[in-house]
Amino acid sequence: MGILTLAKIVEIKAKMTWTQKNKATAHHLGLLKAHLGGGGGGPGEGFDVAKTGDAHTGFAGFPSVGKLTLLSNLAGVYSEVAACEFTTLTTAPGVIRHKGAKIQLLDLPGIIKGAKNGKGRGQVIAVALTCNLILIVLDVLKPLGRKKINENELEGFGIRLNSKPSNTGFKKKDKGGINLIATCLQSELDAETVKSILAKYKIHNADVTLRSDATADDLIDVVEGNRVYIPCIYELDIIYKVPQCVPISAHRRWNFDDLLEKIWDYLKLMRIHTKPKGQLPDYTSPVVLPCSRTTVEDFCMKIHKNLIKEFQYALVWGLSVKHSPQKAGKDHTLEDEDVIQIAKK
Prior knowledge:
- The chain has eight helices and 16 strands.
- It has helices at about 5-20, 25-35, 65-75, 145-155, 190-200, 215-225, 255-265, 295-305; strands at about 55-60, 90-100, 100-105, 135, 160, 170, 180, 205-210, 230, 230-235, 245, 270-275, 280-290, 310-315, 325-330, 340-345.
- A hairpin with a 7-residue loop joins strand 12 and strand 13 (about 280-290).
- The longest helix has 13 residues, at about 5-20.
- Mean pLDDT is about 80; it is low at about 1-10, about 40-45 and about 75-80.
């Protein structure tokens, strides 16, 4: 699609702002969004951080909002903290242990309006794309409108907060034109709009299936295929009724327990305890798995990739089985705090 200059991006966004959103203008707005590439071109170039632990949480927010103080008090990580803007110019990591899991904390450099377009230290925020959870830190003494600015900037990096991919099917083909199938009523997309948006990506032959009421953004996200969907928590004073909000005081270390519990809930991790043959289960160092990968095979791969090659069967105790112990194969799905013993060939 070519590279857009900052001036061109501003011009297109101004047109989108001026255009009243309704059924009649949906086609025009869809084309403008396609010009922008859906509000962000993905990660681009940025600073990398060595990933460690079982999950990764990024602390995002405006400069000097207290992210580093919060991380330091949570993880005991020392770094320069100053009462001025842009203290953190690179991504500072820390690690905490909670419920047996090692959770890496990343203090992302302060977000400023326009960071996604290269202003300030925008490239570094791309590290957020590798996170399993984003925690946006907001200052209760600042306008609540900053919450939306943070969200917009992260959206500009291809991050979709607290949302799931749309139920939109897309498959390119060699010929046959654009074939659109909608299984339900569409309020924004029609055949002409879909065809025009795809033309901006030089796609003239494809099958598109809309299984829910989709938007131009939904279609663009599927076409570009570089979006990440990350859960998000907000650290904010309780006087605001903000969903996914946890009120804390970073300086006074107030309400950290609730924050850690919320982080745990949103990360959706599972603990699997090991039991060597003839010994008691080890409840001190669980093997931690994401809820999307919880089979016996996933457990084996987390320990060592060669373990699955030697795997014969597993004995499982816990909620995932009817009898304790119960013999299980590699495709068996485990539950949180199951106990497992692997029998090798």
